[in-house]
């Protein structure tokens, strides 16, 4: 009975993947070469300097993001990673996360903007994003490993696909959540759609976009352990190794290092979305930059300024309290 109604979906997908390998093998080789080169350069940039130099740089970013408390906490957490002997593995994982998150953000933000400006694109992307978010992360490793082999590249590709969806969704949500009246004001003053996007919609949607960036980074870091199963190395490789050896100590050290990196990346990225005063002021200034003094011409400074001089009363509007009969009150000017 099951053989009669069985849908050969797995066979179809496997055939499609093998066809892609045969037809697009050259393209995948170029992608693997580029990713390997970028990963090697970034990993060397993080691993070659002394650990205290990297700690100072990360602490400076933390201070710029949220202040001295986060900078001190980040430095202490990174010193703990050094103390447990996981610094080199942590830098390998950090390089993989930074590269994968950067590629995912570079794809997610434009897609989110496109979906926010086009309802058909939004409707077409919605089931794809649902599929990407609900599919188990391990499934992404199978075609990635078949296409790119063993190493950090399949881990990065699976991480990019896995972390892509929240960036697209939160970018679209932030742009759609901008007050339509502000956008209409930009149109009324003659601002182009590109200028409205750059100076109104993106600044006002920045908190939601940064929340999407934060989620992309967190999901990328969550794939570190899974990527270690296909030879990506780093902290994920240490966790996989501790699992195969049943080494509790190594697992705790590598797991604690992952937690510290996750906390630092989460606090730093969330801190950049907090200050909004400068971006809101810039967005509010589009009208004055679009047509110079049009705003002043459309909205007079005061009623008195718009009232002709001959229509204004020359004397006080209330008579003085004297013994004489009150003078006739002048008629108010009608504007």
From TrEMBL:
Compositional bias annotation for Low complexity:
298-322
Residues of the ABC transmembrane type-1 domain: 90-269
The answer to whether keyword Cell division applies is no
Source domain of life is Bacteria
* Entry keyword annotation includes Cell membrane: yes
Q: In terms of one coarse class, where is the protein primarily found?
A: membrane
Query: Keywords in UniProt for this one?
Result: Cell membrane, Membrane, Transmembrane, Transmembrane helix, Transport
Matches recorded under PROSITE patterns: ABC_TM1
What InterPro entries does this protein's entry cite? MetI-like (IPR000515), MetI-like_sf (IPR035906)
Where is the stretch described as Disordered? 274-335
| Topology term for the membrane | Multi-pass membrane protein
Q: Where found in the cell?
A: Cell membrane; Membrane
Kindly give the Pfam families that the UniProt entry links to this protein: BPD_transp_1
Q: Which residues cross the membrane?
A: 21-42, 48-64, 94-116, 137-165, 216-236
Its family remark reads:
Belongs to the binding-protein-dependent transport system permease family.
This chain's protein is named ABC transporter permease subunit
Q: Which organism is it from?
A: Microbacterium psychrotolerans
């Amino acid at each position: 009975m099951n053989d009669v109604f069985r849908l050969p979906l797995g066979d179809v997908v496997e055939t499609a993947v093998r066809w892609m390998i045969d037809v697009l093998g050259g393209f995948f080789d170029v992608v693997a070469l580029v990713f390997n080169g970028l990963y090697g350069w970034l990993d060397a940039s993080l691993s070659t300097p002394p650990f205290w130099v990297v700690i100072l740089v990360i602490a400076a970013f933390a201070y710029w993001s949220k202040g001295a408390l986060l900078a001190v906490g980040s430095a202490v957490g990174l010193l703990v990673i050094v103390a447990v002997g996981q610094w080199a593995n942590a830098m390998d994982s950090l390089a993989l996360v930074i590269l994968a998150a950067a590629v995912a953000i570079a794809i997610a933000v434009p897609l989110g903007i496109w979906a926010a400006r086009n309802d058909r694109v939004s409707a077409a992307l919605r089931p794809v994003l649902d599929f990407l978010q609900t599919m188990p992360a391990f499934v992404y490793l199978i075609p990635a490993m078949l296409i790119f082999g063993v190493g950090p590249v399949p881990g990065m590709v699976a991480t990019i696909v896995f972390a892509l969806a929240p960036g697209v969704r939160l970018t679209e949500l932030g742009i759609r959540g901008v007050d339509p009246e502000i956008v209409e004001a930009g149109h009324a003053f003659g601002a182009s759609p590109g200028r409205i996007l750059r100076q109104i919609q993106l600044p006002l949607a920045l908190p939601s976009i940064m929340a999407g960036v934060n989620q992309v980074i967190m999901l990328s870091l969550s794939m570190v352990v899974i990527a270690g199963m296909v030879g990506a190395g780093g902290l994920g490789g240490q966790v996989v190794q501790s699992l195969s050896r049943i080494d509790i100590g190594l697992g705790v050290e590598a797991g604690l290092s992952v937690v510290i990196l996750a906390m630092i990346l989460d606090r730093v990225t969330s801190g950049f979305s907090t200050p909004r005063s400068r971006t809101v002021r810039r967005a509010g200034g589009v009208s004055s930059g679009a047509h110079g003094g049009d705003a002043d011409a459309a909205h007079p400074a005061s009623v008195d300024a718009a009232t002709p001089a001959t229509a204004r009363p020359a004397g006080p509007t209330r008579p003085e309290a004297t013994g004489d009969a009150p003078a006739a009150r002048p008629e108010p000017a009608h504007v």
